[in-house]
Structures are given as structure tokens and as C-alpha cells.
């Protein structure tokens, strides 16, 4: 026992030492973990950067693929556009030819129309002169008429002959017939003129329709050209975007170089960290070796202790067996003695035997107690030792695994460090070469840039002067073009107004003819008036009553008043006609008069009806006069009535003529309304011209934008790299300047022509002012006619009174009826005159409305004066622009010589940059390789971290298990104390029972119980005691056997697992190592297997600890129920068997996992081979890409040259259009003369503006030229 205690103390001391060492090792492991975590963080950061770079490179590759697609699309679109441009050029040529033919036809037609108009104007002038002569003749005739009237009155008073009157009537009839013939001729001429006007209007409509069609075709072509320009602009923008992307790629490459330097610094830091870690690992190795030596010594000492304990246990078993045999022998001897004592009935011997038995029983009880206590102690010690052994084995296995992992990590670190060192050396060499090349390039570029800066400063000054001159010139051109367009519009409007004035002059001539007719009619009426006066005098002389004489005198006075009123009415009518002719010349914007046209159309019909009624009334008056003649009693009265009838007929004829004049006036009003409609059409045309002006303004804006593009091109000429392109641009600018100078010359000529047209228009406007004066005179005449009409209405009232008086004079009722009928007719005529007055008032209102629009013409005259001032300004601006053009030509020639030198320097820089770009691509490929290596290191580090975390978890679990074991020890100590107490209680009960037996024996002796009963009682007691002892011994033996059996099974399982782990390790070690990645995969698989086995062992240990706890509880309950112990032991055995089966299944599953891992490793190897092939393919693709980019640059340069050639063709076409659109042939250089076609004539100027925009877009940079800058 003392030895066992000493050995236990030594074991405890060793355990404490091991714990102290374990703490030291845990501290070291924590420090290693911290260093490892720091390294992991750094490596993760480096991996993140590498991943970002990989993403950026993939994005760049995608962008390159997109650019390829865009380039192919651009190729296809360019080919399509070239075909479209060819088609358009052919279509433009055809359209130009067609337009030239049409314009020639229209010009011929215009010339014919102008000749016809000139003839018509000459005829009108002749007719005007004739009218003036007729007017003078009319004045003479009026004077003659006045004299003849006086003579005629005297002759009538003297002669009173009717023959002369009849002769005069015949003469009047002849004159009327002649007037009718003249009117028919005039009507025929009017109809001819109308037909000519209609033909002229038709030609105008055709001309306008053809012009509209040409404008629509022109607008369609302009839209197509603008669409093409927008497409070209979008393509240029795309090319600029590609240039910006390429610049971004260059910047990204520079950024990646900086990152590479940072990674190199980090790699140097990792080297130092790896060195420190290696030193720490070596120290840990030395410590681990020391600990393994101590562990071996401890294990040897523990094995010795176990051997000694086994010997002691065997000796105790032997002693127990011997004691059992002695007990059996003693029992037999006791039985024999009892039989002998019963037989001999000796009291002395019985007492001795009983004393011996009691002593033996006490000794046996003490031995059993000591044996049970010792067995408990030995079992607890054995359990503790087994637990310690298991812990030691676990720790040894863990340490072995950690050592192996550290060894593998060290090997991998050594290999990676060597690889990194080699790569660093390569990169350092590459960087050194790059730096040297970059320094040389920088020196060259700095020298070239200084030269370029000096040249650029000079060129910028020249370009600034050119810009200013171009701005001045563009502003002058814009202003001149606007003024020219406004002048053209005004000239067109004035020409239209002059045409309307010519028509109005023709109408005035017709009105003058009508006035002459009215004058003749007035003369006839004046001749009729003296006849009426003579008849009135006869009626006075023949009248019987004084009242009738007074009435006749009144009638005579009324007739004289009426004749004077008619003369004045004729004068007023003439004046009104002149005013109407003057006002109708200025009706340009009378849209409201269209409503009044309907009313005017209804009025002629009313007047016709009234004339019919008046004619009927005249017939009735004639019939009444005849009746009056037949019914008259006296011949004198009949003569007077006949005279009155003649006068009435003359008045009716005058009324008929007045009606005719009114109808003619209505016809003139209808013609004027038609002319008003034509004026409304003219207003619409003016609106169309305004729209065209807005279009011209837009084209001017486009021309200003083109000028800005030219400025930009002048700036771009500073940085352009190719001599041919710059020379072509300069030549283009020179050509454009020549074109502009020619355009300025043409503008000057057009301005001079406009001045001539303005002078002719001013002369025509002066003639229109004379016409306005005539119109004012006509207004005065209209007012006079109104007064004459009022006087005629008064005369009609007097006639009504006279008719009433004649009714009273008449004797018969029939005459009274006729007079009443005449009164009715007179009332009807008065109503007709009232309506005529209303119509005249309405005409006056219309005249007032027309006067309000005459003022608009005056405003137009003021605007024309302003236009003349603006034209003078434009002349001055054109002179300045011509001077600026000469300066620009000189500067452009100076720029050519400077740009050639710049081109050579830029070509050198481009070659150097191309070489550096190739080196950058190689560095990118090396970066990808580094990224793949870094990813592998990252995976290895993550696996190491996982293993370390699992080791930490297992250590924590061990600490927890130790704490639980301590608790179990305490609980077992408490249980042993309780058992000791129970044993003491049982001993006390036994003593108490012994006393009772003694008392019973004494009682038996006293009572003298028979000997048979006492023997039976003693036998029963002995049998009960034996049964109890046998049951306890059997239970103890069974427990020991079960414990030993479980212990053997556990040791077998542990040995089998160790053998399997060793076999797996040997298999993995024997497998060939193909690559670094396969080794890592195998090591990961080994670690997984070891970790799984360790977990299973830990679970089995935990289960066994639980079994030990359960067994301790079973020992506490041995006294109550031994049968329950057996059942529990059986259940434990069954559970252990099940665990064995589970372990077997798990081993099978792990074997399957091992097979899967081997297949995975094979797949990884195949993937690695594929990756190597992919890398080779990528290298070949990179080379092909570089070749492709070179071919692309060549093709782009070819396309730029082709674009320039196309632009030259466009310039030639548009120059022809510009030059032939105004009918002037330019005189340029001999080279330029060869470019013009004689067929390209009469094209509009606005095509040149769109082509200038095309020049601005195509003369920009090519999409891959940004790399050169």
C-alpha cells in the first residue's frame, strides 16, 4: 500500500510537471497562432488585390472583345455608307441635270411671260395716253355742249320745230349704237385679257407646284444627308469612347505596376516573417523532442507500476482463495464438532468451539471489509491510471499530428519561398529593363515636348488670329446671307404688288370708259330737258286754270333741279369710280371681305329685279300717256302730254343706263373680290416664304457650326501625326476659303442687282402714290353722287305731287285710275333709289376699311429704306472678310511646314509606346501566374487555420474532461465514506444480533429447550450467512470479469485504430507526388482521417467515462440490488458491441471517402493540365490579338484616307452646286478647274452646309490614335 501511495504521489508530481509544460506549449501555440493570423490577414489582403486585378483584366478582355465587335460593325456600316454615298452622288447628279432642265424651261417661260407683260404694260400706257386725250376732248365737248345748249334753247324758243328734235333723236340713236359697238369691242378685249390672266395664273400654279416638288425632293435629300451625318457623328463618338477606354487601360496598367511594387514589399516582409517562424518552429521541435523523451520515460515507469500492481492483485486473489478453502475446512470441522458435541454432550467443548467460531467470524468480517475496501481503492486507482494513459496517448497523437503538419508547412514554405525568390529576381530584372526603357523614352519625350511646346505656342498665336478672322468672316457671311434672303423676299412681294397694281390700272381704264359713257348719257338727258321745258310752257299756255299753270311751273322747276342733280350724280359717280380703283390696289390682307362677297352677290340680283319692275312701270306710264292723248279734249293738252311722255321715256332710259352702270359696278366688285382672293393666296405664299426664310436661317446656323468645326480642325492640326492628312486638311481649308471668297463676290453682285431692283421698285411705288391720289379724287366724286341721289329723291316727291294735281285736272275716272297707277310706280322707283343709297353707304364703309390697310404699304416703304442701309453695311463686312481670307491663306501655308516636323517626332513616340505596350501585356500574363500561385497559398493557409482551430477545440475539451474527472473523484470519495458508514452500521447490527443470540441461548438453557431445535436454528443462521457471503463474492467476481473484458475490448479497438491510421499514412506516403497541389490534397485527406479517428477516440473515451460513472453508481447500489448490476452490465456490453459495429461502419465510410479524395485528386491533376493548355492558348491568343490590333490600326488609317478622298469628292460636288446655284462660274486654280462638271448647275447653296458638317466629323481623330498622345 505504501508503495502504491508513493507511486501515486510520483505520478501526481509528473502530471503537474506535464501540466506546466502544457501551459508553456499552449502559450507558444497562441503566439504562433497570432503570427499565423497576421500572416493570413496579409495574405488575404494580397489575394483580394490579386482578385481585383484579375477582375479588371477580365473586364478589359471583355472590353477588347466589345471593341472588336464594334470595329466589325463599323466596317460593315462604313461599307454600307460608301454604297449609300455613291448612290446619293449619282442621284444628286441626276437631280442636278433634271433641275437644270426644269430651271431652263422655267426661265424661258418667265421670259415669255415678262415679254407679254411688257406688251400689256405698253398697251396700258397707250390706252392711258388715249384716255387723257379723250378727257381733254370731253372737256372741249362739254364747253361746246354748253354753248350748243344755249343756242339750242334760243332756237327752240324761236323755231319750235319738231323736225330738229326728230333729227337729233336719230343722231342720238346712232350714237347709242356706236357706243354699244365700242362696248362690245371692249368686252371682247376684256375677255381676251381675262383669258391671258388665267393662262398666266395657270403657269404660275405649275411653276409653284414644280417648285414645291423640287423643295420636297431637296428637303428629303437634306434629311438623308443629315441622317448620314448623325450616324457619322455617333460613330466618331464611339471611336472617342474607345480611345478613352484605351487610355483608362493604360492608366490601369500603371496602377497595376504600382501594386506590383507594393506586393514585392509585402513579399519581402513575408520572407522575414517566414524566417522568424522557422526559428520558432525549430525551437518548438527541440521542445517537442524533449517532451517525447520524458513521455517515453513516464510510460515505462507507468508500465512497471502496472506490472507490480498486477502481481499484487494476483497474490491477493491467491490469498482470498486460500482463505475460502480454510473457511470451508473450518465449517466442515465445525459441523463434525457439533455432531461430536451432540453425541458426547460435553459442555466444555461446546463453549470452546463457540468461542472459536465467534473469533473466526470476527476475523472473517474484518477480512471481508478490508478486501472490499482494498478492491475499491485498487479499482479507482486503475481507472485513474487508465484515464491518464488515454490522455497521454491522445496528447502524444495530437503532438505527432501537429509536428507532421508543421513539417509539411515548413516544406511548403521553403518551396514557396524559393519559387518567390526566383520570380522576384525575374521581376526585378524586368522592372530594371522597363525602368531604363521608360527613362530613355521620357528623356526623348521631354526633349520633343519642349520643341513641340515652342512650336505650339507660335501656332496657337497664329490659330487665334485665324479664329478671330474666321469669326468675323462667319458673322459677316451670316448677316449678308440673311439680308440677301430678306431682300429676295421683299423683292418678290413688291413684284407681286406691282402686278396687282398693273391689273388695277387696267381696271381704272375700264372705269374711265364707263365714265365717258355716263357723260354721254348726261348730255342726252341735258338735251331732253329743254324739250320738257318747252312742253311745260305749252301746257301752261293751254291750261285753262291758274292752278294748273302753277303746277306746271312747279314741274318745270322740279325737272330743272332733277337735271342738275343728275349731272352732279354723274360727277360723283366718276369720282367714286376713281377712288375705288385707287383703294382696290392696296387690298392685300382683306380676309374679312370674303363674308361680304356673298352679300354683294345677292345685291345684283335684287337690282335686276328692281330694274325689271321699273321697266314694267315705264310701259304702264306709256300706256297711260296714250290713253290721256286719246281722251284729251284739246290738241294742246295732247301735245303737252306727248312731251311729258317723251321726257319720261328719256328719264327711264337714264335709269336703265344707271342700272347698267350699277350692274357693271357689281361685276367690277366681283372681279375685285377675285383679286382679293388672289391677294389671300399671295399672303399664303408670303407665309411659305417666311418658312423658307426660317429654313435658310437654320442652314446659316449650320454654316456657323461648320465654321466652328473648321476652327477645331485648325486646332487639331497642331497634334495630328500624319503629313498627308495635314496637307489635305490645309488644302481643304484653302479651297473652302476660295469658295467663301467666290461666295462673297457673288453676294456683292447680288446686292448690286438688288439695288437696281430696289430703284425700279421705288419708281413703281411713286406711280402707286399717284394712283392713291386718284383714288382720293374718286372718293370725293362718290360723296357728290350721294348728294345727287338725295336731290333725285326730292325730285321724285315733287313728281308725285304733280301727278296728284294732274289727277284733279283729268275729267274722267279712267285718267284718275291711270294717275294712281303712275303714283304706285313712282313709289316703287323711290324704294329702289333708297335701296341704292343703302348700297352706296355700305360701299363707303368698305372704302373706309380699305383705307386702314393703305397705311400698311407705307410701313413697307420704311422697311425698304432700312434694308438699303443694311445692304451697305454688308458690303463693308464683305470687304473685311476678303482681307481676312488672304491672311488665313498665308497662315495655313505656314502651318504646313511646321506640321511635317511634328509628324516625325510623333511617329517615333508611337513606335516606342507600342514596344512598351507589348511589355505591359507580358507583365499582365506574369501577374496572372502570380495570382494563381497566391490563390494556392491562400488555400493552404486556410486549411492550416482550420486544423489549428480544431486542435484548440480538442484542448478545451480535454480541460473540461479533467474538470469532470475531478468532480467524479470527489463524488466517489463521498460514496466511499457513505459505504464505510453503512458497514459500521452493519457491524453494530451484527453485535446487536450476537447479544440477542446469547440472550436466547441463555433463555434456552433456562427454559431447557431441546437440543434439536437449537441445532436447527444454528444451521439456519449459518446457511443465511453463507448465502450472503457467497452472493457478495459472486457479484464482486462478476464485476471484475466484466471490467477486465471491457478493458481488453477497448485496448483492442485502440490498437486496431492505430494500425489503420498507420496503414493509411503509409498508403499516402507511398503514393507518388505529382505536383504541389496533389501533395496538399493528400495531406488534407490524411489530416481529415486523423482528425476523424481522434474524434472517434475522444467520443469513445467520453462514453467510457460515462460508463465508469455509471459503474460507481452501481457500486453504491450493490447492497440494495445486485441483480440490477448484472442487467446494467449486460446493457453496457450490448452498447459496446453496437459501438464496435458503428466504428466498423465509420471505417468503411472513411475508406469510401479516401477513394473519393483520390478521384478528386485525379480530377485536379487533369484540371491543372487543362489550365496549362489554356495558358498556352491565351499566350497564342495574345500574340494574335497584337497582330490583329496592328492590322486594325492599318485598316483604320486606310479608312481615314478613304474618308478624306470621299470628302474631297463631296467638296467638289458641293462646290459645283454652290458655284452653279447662282449662275456664276468660279475662277480657281488649274487643279480645281479639273474638278468641276459642266452639268452641275443651278443647285441651291444649302447643300454645302451639310457637307461642311461631314468634313468636320470625318477630319477628326481616328479611334486608335489616342494611344499616340
From TrEMBL:
The lineage of its organism: Eukaryota, Viridiplantae, Streptophyta, Embryophyta, Tracheophyta. Residues 1-63, 103-231, 313-377, 477-524, 734-792, 823-880, 969-996, 1108-1167 form a coiled coil. InterPro entries: At4g38062-like. This is Uncharacterized protein. Keywords: Coiled coil. It comes from Camellia sinensis var. sinensis. PANTHER family: OS03G0691500 PROTEIN (PTHR45287:SF4). The keyword Coiled coil applies.
Amino acid at each position: 500500500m505504501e508503495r502504491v501511495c508513493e507511486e501515486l504521489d510520483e505520478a501526481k508530481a509528473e502530471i503537474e510537471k506535464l501540466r506546466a509544460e502544457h501551459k508553456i506549449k499552449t502559450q507558444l501555440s497562441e503566439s504562433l497562432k497570432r503570427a499565423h493570423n497576421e500572416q493570413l490577414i496579409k495574405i488575404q489582403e494580397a489575394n483580394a488585390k490579386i482578385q481585383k486585378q484579375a477582375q479588371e483584366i477580365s473586364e478589359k478582355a471583355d472590353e477588347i472583345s466589345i471593341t472588336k465587335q464594334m470595329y466589325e460593325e463599323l466596317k460593315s456600316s462604313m461599307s454600307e455608307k460608301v454604297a449609300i454615298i455613291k448612290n446619293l452622288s449619282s442621284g444628286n447628279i441626276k437631280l442636278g441635270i433634271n433641275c437644270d432642265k426644269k430651271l431652263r424651261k422655267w426661265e424661258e417661260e418667265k421670259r415669255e411671260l415678262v415679254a407679254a407683260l411688257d406688251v400689256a404694260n405698253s398697251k396700258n400706257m397707250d390706252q392711258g395716253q388715249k384716255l387723257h386725250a379723250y378727257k381733254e376732248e370731253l372737256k372741249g365737248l362739254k364747253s361746246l355742249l354748253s354753248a350748243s345748249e344755249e343756242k339750242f334753247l334760243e332756237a327752240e324758243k324761236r323755231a319750235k320745230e319738231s323736225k330738229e328734235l326728230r333729227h337729233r333723236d336719230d343722231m342720238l340713236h346712232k350714237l347709242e349704237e356706236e357706243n354699244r359697238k365700242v362696248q362690245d369691242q371692249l368686252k371682247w378685249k376684256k375677255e381676251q385679257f381675262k383669258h391671258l390672266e388665267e393662262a398666266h395664273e395657270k403657269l404660275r400654279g405649275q411653276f409653284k407646284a414644280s417648285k414645291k416638288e423640287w423643295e420636297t425632293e431637296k428637303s428629303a435629300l437634306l434629311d438623308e444627308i443629315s441622317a448620314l451625318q448623325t450616324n457619322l457623328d455617333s460613330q466618331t463618338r464611339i471611336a472617342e469612347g474607345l480611345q478613352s477606354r484605351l487610355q483608362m487601360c493604360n492608366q490601369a496598367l500603371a496602377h497595376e505596376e504600382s501594386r506590383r511594387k507594393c506586393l514585392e514589399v509585402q513579399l519581402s516582409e513575408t520572407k522575414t516573417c517566414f524566417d522568424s517562424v522557422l526559428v520558432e518552429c525549430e525551437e518548438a521541435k527541440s521542445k517537442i523532442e524533449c517532451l517525447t523523451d520524458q513521455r517515453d520515460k513516464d510510460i515505462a515507469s507507468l508500465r512497471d507500476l502496472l506490472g507490480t500492481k498486477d502481481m499484487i492483485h494476483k497474490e491477493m486473489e491467491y490469498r482470498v482463495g486460500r482463505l475460502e478453502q480454510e473457511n470451508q475446512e473450518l465449517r466442515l470441522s465445525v459441523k463434525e464438532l457439533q455432531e461430536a458435541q451432540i453425541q458426547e454432550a460435553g459442555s466444555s467443548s461446546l463453549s470452546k468451539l463457540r468461542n472459536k467460531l465467534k473469533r473466526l467470524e470476527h476475523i472473517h468480517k474484518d477480512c471481508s471489509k478490508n478486501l472490499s475496501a482494498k478492491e475499491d481503492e485498487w479499482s479507482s486507482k486503475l481507472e485513474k491510471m487508465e484515464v491518464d494513459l488515454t490522455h497521454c496517448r491522445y496528447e502524444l497523437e495530437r503532438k505527432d499530428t501537429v509536428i507532421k503538419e508543421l513539417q509539411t508547412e515548413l516544406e511548403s514554405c521553403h518551396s514557396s519561398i524559393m519559387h518567390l525568390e526566383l520570380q522576384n529576381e525575374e521581376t526585378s530584372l524586368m522592372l530594371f529593363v522597363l525602368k531604363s526603357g521608360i527613362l530613355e523614352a521620357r528623356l526623348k519625350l521631354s526633349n520633343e515636348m519642349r520643341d513641340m511646346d515652342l512650336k505650339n505656342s507660335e501656332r496657337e498665336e497664329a490659330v487665334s488670329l485665324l479664329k478671330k478672322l474666321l469669326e468675323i468672316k462667319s458673322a459677316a457671311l451670316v448677316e449678308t446671307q440673311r439680308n440677301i434672303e430678306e431682300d429676295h423676299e421683299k423683292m418678290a412681294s413688291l413684284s407681286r404688288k406691282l402686278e396687282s397694281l398693273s391689273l388695277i390700272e387696267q381696271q381704272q381704264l375700264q372705269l374711265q370708259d364707263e365714265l365717258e359713257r355716263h357723260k354721254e348719257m348726261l348730255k342726252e338727258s341735258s338735251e331732253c330737258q329743254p324739250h320738257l321745258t318747252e312742253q311745260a310752257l305749252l301746257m301752261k299756255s293751254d291750261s285753262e286754270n291758274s292752278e294748273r299753270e302753277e303746277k306746271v311751273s312747279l314741274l318745270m322747276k322740279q325737272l330743272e333741279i332733277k337735271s342738275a342733280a343728275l349731272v352732279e350724280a354723274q360727277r360723283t359717280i366718276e369720282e367714286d369710280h376713281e377712288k375705288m380703283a385707287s383703294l382696290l390696289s392696296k387690298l392685300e390682307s382683306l380676309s374679312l371681305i370674303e363674308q361680304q362677297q356673298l352679300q354683294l352677290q345677292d345685291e345684283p340680283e335684287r337690282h335686276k329685279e328692281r330694274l325689271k319692275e321699273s321697266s314694267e312701270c315705264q310701259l304702264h306710264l306709256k300706256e297711260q300717256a296714250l290713253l290721256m292723248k286719246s281722251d284729251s279734249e284739246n290738241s294742246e293738252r295732247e301735245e303737252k302730254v306727248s312731251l311729258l311722255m317723251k321726257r319720261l321715256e328719256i328719264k327711264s332710259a337714264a335709269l336703265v343706263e344707271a342700272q347698267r352702270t350699277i350692274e357693271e359696278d357689281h361685276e367690277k366688285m366681283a372681279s375685285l373680290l377675285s383679286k382679293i382672293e388672289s391677294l389671300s393666296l399671295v399672303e399664303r405664299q408670303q407665309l411659305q416664304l417666311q418658312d423658307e426664310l426660317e429654313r435658310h436661317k437654320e442652314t446659316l446656323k449650320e454654316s456657323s457650326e461648320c465654321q466652328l468645326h473648321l476652327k477645331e480642325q485648325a486646332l487639331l492640326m497642331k497634334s495630328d501625326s500624319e503629313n498627308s492628312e495635314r496637307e489635305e486638311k490645309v488644302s481643304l481649308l484653302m479651297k473652302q476659303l476660295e469658295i467663301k471668297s467666290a461666295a462673297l463676290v457673288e453676294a456683292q453682285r447680288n446686292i448690286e442687282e438688288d439695288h437696281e431692283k430696289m430703284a425700279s421698285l421705288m419708281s413703281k411705288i411713286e406711280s402707286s402714290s399717284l394712283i392713291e391720289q386718284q383714288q382720293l379724287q374718286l372718293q370725293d366724286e362718290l360723296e357728290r353722287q350721294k348728294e345727287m341721289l338725295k336731290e333725285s329723291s326730292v325730285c321724285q316727291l315733287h313728281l308725285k305731287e304733280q301727278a296728284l294735281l294732274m289727277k284733279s285736272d283729268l275729267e274722267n275716272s279712267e285718267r284718275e285710275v291711270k294717275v294712281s297707277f303712275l303714283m304706285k310706280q313712282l313709289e316703287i322707283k323711290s324704294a329702289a333709289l333708297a335701296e341704292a343709297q343703302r348700297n352706296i353707304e355700305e360701299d363707303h364703309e368698305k372704302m373706309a376699311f380699305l383705307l386702314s390697310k393703305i397705311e400698311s404699304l407705307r410701313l413697307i416703304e420704311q422697311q425698304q429704306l432700312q434694308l438699303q442701309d443694311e445692304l451697305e453695311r454688308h458690303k463693308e463686312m464683305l470687304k473685311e472678310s476678303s482681307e481676312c481670307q488672304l491672311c488665313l491663306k498665308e497662315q495655313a501655308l505656314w502651318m504646313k511646314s511646321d506640321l511635317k516636323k511634328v509628324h516625325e517626332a510623333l511617329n517615333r513616340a508611337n513606335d516606342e509606346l507600342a514596344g512598351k505596350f507589348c511589355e505591359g501585356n507580358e507583365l499582365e500574363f506574369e501577374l496572372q501566374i502570380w495570382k494563381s500561385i497566391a490563390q494556392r497559398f491562400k488555400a493552404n493557409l486556410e486549411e492550416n487555420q482550420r486544423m489549428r482551430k480544431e486542435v484548440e477545440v480538442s484542448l478545451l475539451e480535454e480541460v473540461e474532461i479533467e474538470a469532470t474527472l475531478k468532480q467524479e473523484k470527489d463524488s466517489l470519495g463521498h460514496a466511499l465514506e457513505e459505504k464505510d458508514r453503512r458497514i459500521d452500521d452493519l457491524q453494530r447490527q451484527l453485535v446487536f444480533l450476537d447479544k440477542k443470540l446469547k440472550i436466547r441461548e441463555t433463555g434456552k438453557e433456562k427454559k431447557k429447550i431441546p437440543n434439536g431445535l437449537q441445532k436447527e436454528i444454528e444451521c439456519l443462521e449459518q446457511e443465511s450467512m453463507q448465502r450472503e457471503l457467497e452472493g457478495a463474492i459472486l457479484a464482486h467476481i462478476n464485476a471484475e470479469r466484466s471490467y477486465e473484458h471491457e478493458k481488453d475490448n477497448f485496448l483492442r479497438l485502440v490498437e486496431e485504430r492505430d494500425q489503420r491510421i498507420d496503414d493509411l499514412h503509409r498508403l499516402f506516403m507511398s503514393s507518388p507526388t505529382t505536383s504541389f497541389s496533389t501533395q496538399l490534397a493528400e495531406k488534407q485527406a490524411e489530416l481529415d482521417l486523423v482528425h476523424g479517428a481522434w474524434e472517434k477516440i475522444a467520443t469513445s473515451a467520453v462514453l467510457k467515462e460515462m460508463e465508469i460513472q455509471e459503474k460507481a453508481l452501481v457500486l453504491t447500489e450493490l447492497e440494495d440490488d445486485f441483480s440490477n448490476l448484472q442487467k446494467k452490465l449486460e446493457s453496457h456490453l450490448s452498447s459496446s458491441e453496437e459501438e464496435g459495429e458503428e466504428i466498423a461502419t465509420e471505417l468503411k465510410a472513411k475508406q469510401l471517402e479516401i477513394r473519393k479524395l483520390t478521384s478528386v485528386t485525379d480530377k485536379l491533376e487533369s484540371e491543372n493540365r487543362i489550365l496549362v493548355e489554356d495558358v498556352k492558348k491565351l499566350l497564342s491568343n495574345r500574340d494574335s490579338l497584337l497582330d490583329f490590333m496592328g492590322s486594325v490600326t492599318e485598316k483604320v488609317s486606310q479608312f481615314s484616307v478613304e474618308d478624306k478622298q470621299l470628302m474631297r469628292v463631296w467638296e467638289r460636288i458641293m462646290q459645283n452646286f454652290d458655284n452653279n446655284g447662282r449662275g456664276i462660274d468660279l475662277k480657281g486654280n488649274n487643279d480645281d478647274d479639273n474638278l468641276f462638271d459642266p452639268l452641275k448647275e443651278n443647285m441651291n447653296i444649302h447643300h454645302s452646309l451639310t457637307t461642311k458638317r461631314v468634313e468636320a466629323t470625318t477630319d477628326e481623330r481616328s479611334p486608335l490614335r489616342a494611344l499616340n498622345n
